[in-house]
Each structure stands twice: as structure tokens, then as C-alpha cells.
Amino acid sequence: MTAHAHDYDAVVRRYFEAWNADGARARAGAVAEVWTADGRYTDPVSDATGHEAIGAVIAAVHERFPGFVFRRVGGVEGHHDTARFSWELVSGADGSAPVAGSDVITLDAGSRVRAVYGFLDRVPEGP
């Protein structure tokens, strides 16, 4: 097995650009740039495969949390084709961060995301 050199920080920066993309067209383009065609996103409440389904998960988060952005917390740790990092969902209005978690991602040889395994560390109560 050949090891590939990945710029984990750059990959995660693009990942957050996809999560923070404004509007359906920008989101679709960012998701297509970040994920492989058969890429998967999974966390305790979502399981999506493919660009359209992943874009729908991102859109649903923004519908539930309008005016919020995802922000990385701390550094990115990576080796081989895998990286992990923590994040929080932050309100642009008051700086509150009701949602936080950690993600583990796997990459293809071209540094595109094949899979995301998300863990939610803090979630708000209610619908």
C-alpha cells in the first residue's frame, strides 16, 4: 500500500467551506469539490451517500440553524488517509455554540473525502 501525502489542514478548510456555503448552487459546487462521487457522511442523526444527499444534510442543518456557521476547534490530526478534528456550530448573532462535535474523515489519493464519521458532543434539546 502506497502512502499518499495529504495536506490535512487544507482538506478540512475545504470541508468547512462546503458546510458553510451560502445557497444551493455554492453548496453543490463545494460538496462536489470536497467529496468523492460516492462519498458518505454519517453521524448519529444522518447517513447520506453521494453529493446530492450530503448537500441535503448540510441544507437541513442551515434550515434548523439559520445564521450559524461551522468553525473548527483546535488542530487537525492526520495520518495515512485519515484525519480527525473538532468543530462547533456558532451563531453569527451572539457567538453561542449550541452544537459541537468531532469528525473523522477518510480520503482518497487525491485528498477528496470518501467518508465522514461524525460524533455529536453537544446538542440542544428540542426538535
TrEMBL record:
Gene3D superfamilies: 3.10.450.50. It comes from Streptomyces griseoloalbus. Residues 12-111 form the SnoaL-like domain. This is SnoaL-like domain-containing protein. It holds the Pfam family SnoaL_2. InterPro entries: NTF2-like_dom_sf (IPR032710), SnoaL-like (IPR037401).
